[in-house]
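Q: Got a minute? One more chain.
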Amino acid sequence: MKIGVGFLILAMALTPLTDGFSKSLVQNHTTFFVVFVRYFSAGVIALLLAIVLKKPIEIPRNDRLGQVFRTALMMGAMVALIFALSLVPLAKAVGGFLIAPVVATIISVIMLKEKMCTTRLIGSLFSFIGAYIILKPEGGFEFGTFMALFGGFLLGCYLAATRRATVHGGAFSTLIVQCLLGAAMIAPLAFIGGFPVLSSGEVIYILALGAVSAICHFLTVLAYHKAEASVLAPFFYFNIVFAIPVGYFWFLEVPSLPTLIGLFCIVLGGILAMISVRVRVSGFTGLFALPVEFARKFNLKV
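A: Always. Here it is, folded:
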C-alpha cells in the first residue's frame, strides 16, 4: 500500500499544473476543445512511449463495455472541471472537485466491500474539513462551483469503478485506451465550429498539458492498483496543497489564513491515513523510492 500512496501523492503534486494549462487555454477556446486536446495529446504521447518501450497495448475482451463506461465518467468529470475553471478561481474549482475521494470511498465501502477502519475514517474527515474550509462557501451558490462539485462526483464514480477493473488490465494499456477513446468521444463537440487557430504559445501549452496529464493519469491508475480506494482517499486532498502555489505564482492568488488552516487539516488527515497503513516516511524518502518502482513496473508486462 505504501507505494500506492506515494504514486498518488506524486500525481497530486503534478495535477495542478494540468489545471493551470487548462485554465489558460479555456480563456480563448471552448471547454470541449480543451478537454479533447488534453486527452488526445496525452494518449498520443503515451502511445509513442509504448512503441519506444515495446509495451503491448491490451484491451480486455470481457471488459470493453466497462472501459467505455469508465471513460465516459472520466470525460464527464473533466468537462465539468474545465468549465468550472473558466468561471471560478483555480483553488475554488479544485476544492469543489475534491469531493471525489469521499464519493469513491463511500462506493468502495458499500458496493465493493472494502474495509473502513476508524483511523481511515478520521483521516478522511479531517481532509474533507480542510477542503471545506478552503472552499469558503458563501451565501450565493455559483454555477462554476456546482460544476466543480458535479465533476467531483463523476470522478469519484470513476475512481471506484477503476479500482474494481484493475484486475482485468494493465495500467499502461488503461492510460492509452482511455485517453484516445475519451478524445474520440469528445471530438464531435470539440470541432463544431471548425478547427480553432492556435498560437505558438498555445501549442506549447497543449503539448505540456498532454505530457503532464499522461503522467498524472498513469500514476493515479498505478496507485489504485496498489491500494484500496478508502486508503488513498485522504491523500487525494494533497491536490489542493500543491494547487495553492500554482495559483499564487501563475494566477496571483494569495492564500488566506483560512486556506492555511485548511491545508493543515488536509496534511493531518494524510498523516493519520499513513499511520493506518504503517507507512514510514522520513522527509521526502518515500518519494525518492518512486523512480525505482516506476522502472520496475516498466519491466513487467502490463
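A: Residues 2-298 form one domain.
Q: Perfect, thanks.
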